[in-house]
User: Fold these one by one.
Assistant:
Number 1:
Amino acid sequence: MASRLADRWVLITGASAGFGAAAARAFAAEGARLLLGARRVDRLEAAAASARAAGSPEVHFHGLDVALTASVETFVRWTATVADRIDVLVNNAGGALGLEPVSEGRDEDWEGMMQSNALGILRMVRAVLPRMPRDAGATILNIGSIAARTPYENGAAYCAAKAAELAITKSLRLELCGSGIRVATLDPGMAETEFSVVRFKGDEERARKVYAGVKPLTPEDVAEAMVWMAGRPAHVCIDEMIIKPVDQAAIHKVHRRVVGG
Ligand SMILES: NC(=O)c1ccc[n+]([C@@H]2O[C@H](COP(=O)([O-])OP(=O)(O)OC[C@H]3O[C@@H](n4cnc5c(N)ncnc54)[C@H](OP(=O)(O)O)[C@@H]3O)[C@@H](O)[C@H]2O)c1
């Protein structure tokens, strides 16, 4: 049976790395057509090439900064020049900046996290909604985090930004009830991507320690869940999904295997 996602137009934000780049390949393998956005256009070009190799009939990419309304509007206007509609919007762009107590937090980091993880979703949805078909399986899939549900010390702003993502998802689900557009959140636990390198501002050694002795999720694990959620029959909405590594029972409960032990 052909995939329900074949020939669908799927827009993925933050497609230059991690979950977003893996999602581009996974939707491509279903035969979906892709619109990819992120700030690093050279990395988008590589993600687009992988998606074409994975089987997408059509892949386009364009620079996008979800923290800027003008950039979002330019991006969505550009989508209209290559695609007649947007069937699936994956709001994945985001991440964490810093891991400090509030007493040592930096405005720049707090504002960056709120902009990309929370306000970016509002901007993208406002701009894309007029281009989404009604009653035809259209999907808004927001990428949240278990941090939205269990705050942790030194992560106040990130946890708050992801809690905002969850609240936005729930509000949209109510606002769009009757439109035939489904709205969902996919909330991962620990996954190895560039997330920790970005959080620790390029300190790769510190980033590696986050995953020491643990078998974290891979970007492909998360992408597979995205494809499944967006590929359900048009009348089905998976409102919320939490996906964690087996080694992570809760945000603070991570089993670490002793290396060499
Ligand atoms: N890895 C984890 O453990 C984990 C767990 C739960 C949730 N998440 C969430 O999953 C999402 C993807 O993260 P990831 O783990 O794949 O991290 P990643 O490898 O660092 O990828 C983040 C992506 O977001 C893009 N991005 C960041 N700010 C942006 C902006 N202002 N405008 C446009 N694109 C932006 C980056 O692209 P550019 O830099 O090129 O713009 C990159 O493509 C994030 O929302 C993150 O919070 C991650």
Number 2:
Amino acid sequence: MSAVGELLAAFRDYLLSRSDPGLHHFIEGFRWPMEERALAPHDLPVVRYLHEPRRPGNGAESALLHRLSDAANVLHWAQTYSITDFGADFLQRYGWIELFGTRGHFASEDMAGGFLLLGPGVHYPDHHHEAEEIYIPLSDGSLWSKDAQPFLPHWSGEIIHHPSNIRHAMRTDDEPLVALYLWRGGPLAQKSIISGRMQ
Ligand SMILES: [Fe+2]
């Protein structure tokens, strides 16, 4: 199995190991066997934060994070935004990898999934999109806002659900954010609509 195939298996097994009813409903019926696309590796500046020493964890999230780190150099890291959206510094500390979906390492028209990375000291302003979304942080202490509510810290393994078109935003302090994401029920390659401003 390819390194990306092993990461997909770990991603699937992690989700299936969770007993959360909302997550279970979100992924119910999804066909995990998918055709692999030949995507060339593509590096981004933010990927360096994935390899920084961090406090050792022994949970399932930590194991998945290490899998991601091990596979990082063969993954096609990408960005949706350009310099005119949030500026040059944001692009140094932001990126994602689509493991499966309409353009990712494995082909699916039904659901997209992958990982988001934010470096320390980032504000990812309010944005929204038609697809329904689940995030599960694999790191601790990132701050999240939903529906213009105050930012609240979230921890590794928490399941964060964004219904279709709800505004959401994230911030990091000293620690980077690594989060698993799932998109379903809307255009899977839509660029988010930005409603917030950089602060
Ligand atoms: Fe989102």
Number 3:
Amino acid sequence: MRLLGKIFSKKEEILPALDMSIFKVDMHSHLIPGIDDGSKTMSQTIGLLSKLEEMGYKKVITTPHIMRDYYQNTPDIILNGLAELKNELATLNLNIQVEAAAEYYFDYAFMQQLQQKEKLLTFGDQYILIEFPFHAKPSKIDDLLFELLMQGYKPVIAHFERYLYFDDCVSLAQEWRDKGVSIQLNFNSIFGHYGVEVKRQAERLIDAEAIDFAATDCHNIDHLLILERNSTNSYLHKLSHLKLKNNQLI
Ligand SMILES: [Fe+2]
């Protein structure tokens, strides 16, 4: 009887589809056409923005990759792409606001740009989105974060849950947050889209309330459809109850 009781008490409550308008602003995506591995054409971008608006978003801050070995984007390339996109939007019946920053890959070129105090693309109040390699932990992460903070930037670590080389991800996230670094989580990590280990790290971070931003990291329509299909997920609901900074970017 006790076992049966345990089984029944474990049965999950069925939750409604989460209304994504609660997040207001998506601050990590790849929607400038043709400049990275995200949207390939203007019409794809318009389709993605229509979907994001339908989901309830008010603003998208799109963040093309800047990665010396693969995507040699510059602020000019990104801002020109944004201007073309805004021209296109002006002819359409879409109300979603669009801004652009970048997702900076932590490589030697980025460190050089930072040290030479080149203009870097930020969003909101001096936030800068940074990603690390997935395969191996880079050395000198602490130096990078220190330099960014010293120069007045507020580093945001993109999809922090995806770096499986951070053994105790919750302690590290808390340690960095105490120093002024923000932690960003991808929604689709919660649903196992990037594997079961990433899903577990995402759940640990949500349970510990160690997240500052949540984002789609949308490269294509599949990313939004996966999110929509999983809108009743209990961890997505739990995430929506955290004090996130997304809606401060409106
Ligand atoms: Fe990204």
